[in-house]
Amino acid sequence: MSQSFKLSRRAFFKVSLVAGISVCIAPWSQEALAELFEERLLTPVRWDPRTSKTAFRIDGVAKVTGQKIFAQDIRARDMPHWPQQQGHAFIVRIPCADRIYQGIDLGYLGPDLQPDRVVTAESLERDGLVLPGSYGGEPFLATGRSALYLGHPVAMLIYRDFARFNRAKARLKFNEDKYFRYGAHAPFREYDPYASFRFVRVAGDARQGPDVYSSFKDTEIFGHYLKNHKTAWPEALRHGKLDEQGMAYAQGIRDELTSPPPEWLVMTRQYASQSTDGGAMEPDNANGWYDAEQQALHLVITSQSPAEDANGIAEMLAKSRFGIKSLFIHPCHTVGYGTKENSIFPFYGLIAALYGASLPVRLSNDRYEQFQSTLKRHAFDISRTIAVDRKTGLFHILQSSLVSNGGGRSNVGPAVAVSAATASQSIYYFPRNDIDVVCNYSRAIESGSVRGFGTLQSMLATEMLVDELAEALQMDPIELRLRNALHSGDPTTQGIAAAGAERIVEVLQKAKDHPIWKQRAAAKARFDAGHPGQLYGAGFACVQMKFGHVGGEASFAKVEIDPHGRITLYHTCTEMGTFDFDGQSKRVPLDGVSVRHGLAPYRMLPRQQAFYPDVQRKFAIATYFSVTSTLVELSVEIGTGKVTVLNHHHVVDCGRPIVPELISGQLQGGVAMGIGHALYEYLPLYEDGPGNGTWNFNRYHLPRASEVAVWQQTGELLPPLSDTDPSKGMAEVVMIPIVPAIANAIHHATGHRFYDVPVTPEKIKEKMS
């Protein structure tokens, strides 16, 4: 039986009303947390009195030993007001997208393993359950249709006991041909792209003066779609609408690249970045209980965006027949590298709970299911062109076309596409640019918010191209970067300067002065002579990545009450206002001003005019950036093509660090992910990829400690400019530069360039044969 769920005053303030349903986002029960400590999955904080710091995180030991510390092991018995019996569910997924689905034959399970409840598309339609927003339709594939994507769910099977659940799941795994019923062959589904954007900029006479045209000053350009689902852009008209004017400038840029001046070097290359798995150590899971008597739903979910999940779940419930009045969500903030943000999985946890017949139901992926269903990194195909002056080494034009594979659901594909396009410039200033990007639908598993958010794929191309340009110009690669680095006040490819100080030159100079770079020629000669059959290479890359919200940063306020009852307001911004100081007009960053003359009373000065940010700021896309550079040393075996990372050094600008230990952890983890992307990790997109349900870590190579130079790696942080220097987000940017740095180092070792990642031994052997 249910017990009433009582809210403390503090918990009361966490409750909101969404679509007529009261929503409470609350931590787990104390009993559930205590269980994790009891099993030593979490350890009490250990304080080091010598340093006045904690020795390590409460989940540190569990993380490095591979323990499950989030929602994976939360059972009904851990939640004090839930029924104690635990139900279980799993999802059946279709492994092909070119056959008409005609249902599943559960007779294959035999009479003893029949599920207690089967949920299908027809069940959801009957009960009015529709997924919200970008999650789209078809949470389950209806009979008579072909799959939206490989691994599309067709049914959920719910069991009241674990033993039958476990046996049934094992019997169905890898035996799809024995219980799936197919109709005729069908063509793959086709849809319009999820999004298409274009960013055009033409600078004015002054580097930091007004632009002739830019997305910030004028508009970004949107594509439209033809009957064959291809993208078409507006007509190019110099005196037309704003987007047509932009296309006219874009056409002028492309014409100039086709017939450049003789003093220019124009280089175009094609790059490809693969689909990868986030590789989070904990598979997606949820546990939920529908208390029909109280018309309340309780959910424990793994989530990186609990507020968004709560809103979406409440909206979904409000339109259904279930009549739920209260929703209690217990989010488990997990490390998912983005793959648990905007994930559809919590909604399947919701469905499991609703059809559990008042029994708590647990839905938890095994590793095969995780590969088959979790969000993937967008694969990209990129064409990139840079025009540079042969004498000065200054860049003139950046032109790029990017195509990303969004998979079977839109998810955050449009936002990733914008992020990739605007990151194309990396750390460089370009007077003119024409950058277009398209995010396409495909039958692949949906792609989402994975660490790097499109910038990884885009900037690896830029950094590899800049290195090749430097070679063609017979110039030191870091020197070429220094000549073209963005300075404070320089506009981006959208036409707006970065907020705060740009410290790219400092980062580059530190790398240029580092022994790895200065001594690379001598190191190669010494290593190659002392290691027959191996080749030494050193490489470099530097990138900057946006952090914060895309062009729409808000101001934040804090109200503080001290022990004496005094109230203090802290605010991040003031309204700037032209005040009249005794006949002299001055613009100052103040809300109000009062003055006094001698002993006279204070007199409030009325504000003559207020100044507000331009609404065009939404077209800025990004204004806050963190910078990271990477030097890498590696060796290549001539006979096998195997690459061994020997050492790497990083210079990071993260402003004023708050917790240096966390920065170190983010750096080490991000670099390991980047090494995996550069050398090992790869997922085929379609029929032979993870959508067929046969992929696990036996086929997917995550880098090990021995492959990331774990004991040799070093890093340094630029000191803050002042005690008030703002902190900068850097959790994502640290992953990126190691990828092109490795590609550039492989070229230094072998003399060959590679334009798609991962750079595998097979690709190296083919080039060197």
Brief overview:
This protein has 769 residues and is of the alpha+beta class. Helices cover 24% and strands 24% of the residues. The model is unreliable at 1-5, 9-13 and 550-554 (pLDDT under 50).
List descriptors.
19 helices, 32 strands, 7-stranded mixed β-sheet, alpha+beta, globular, 9-stranded mixed β-sheet, disordered N terminus, 769 residues
Q: How would you characterize the overall build of this protein?
A:
With 769 residues, the protein is an alpha+beta fold. The chain is 24% helix and 24% strand. It contains 19 helices and 32 strands. It has a nine-stranded mixed sheet. The chain has a seven-stranded mixed sheet with strand order 11-10-21-20-19-14-32, sandwiched between helices. A hairpin with a 4-residue loop joins strand 3 (47-48) and strand 4 (53-54). It is globular and about 80 Å long. The termini are far apart. Residues 1-5, 9-13 and 550-554 have low confidence and may be disordered.
